[in-house]
Amino acid sequence: MKIINFAETNSILNKYVAEIRDVQIQGDRLRFRRNIERIGEIMAYEMSKAFAYSSKDIQTPLGIAPVQTPDNELVISTILRAGLPFHQGFLSYFDYAENAFVSAYRKYKDTLKFDIHIEYIASPRIDGKTLIITDPMLATGSSMELSYQAMLTKGHPAEIHVASIIASRRAVEYIADKLPSDKTTIWCAAIDPEINEHSYIVPGLGDAGDLAFGEKE
Q: In the predicted model, what is the mean pLDDT of residues 11-15?
């Protein structure tokens, strides 16, 4: 399984990651959402380099231009609700993609223990397609695994791309163990070393859903 950590390279993506982490900046919800989108756009561009391409003859007003364009049939799947701005970033570049949405949430037994529940899925068939699963935060990896299992009720993809902005090392290792290694690539803007007793990524950035859309009861 291929794991790509963009924090190990220098690019403008790091600026937007810095801003969504920064407590002095992240209180601006509009800017927070837009930065999430920007990270999705940059990731989509980088991810596109891994697709299959072929040459097409394009008719211009003056002649025929051969152009290398991607052939992959894409399905972008997003875990609600924090994933919506991230999804939009990918959709801005992969505007021809089909879309899927999965609702996964933590159902707490007490302040420290919880189970992950899948409540809703809306998806096209994914047989033979390129499945991109986006979730801005990968803390334990459990939501991502269950979302992937839910997507399998719609078919079996040819390849899988897991995209996250900030992931814990534990989550990356968990996903690498649970998803098929021969056809999965994990893309992260940053991989943080640990999670705390509440299963939040440290240093992380806090609750991405609350920062994007406001606190929930």
A: 97
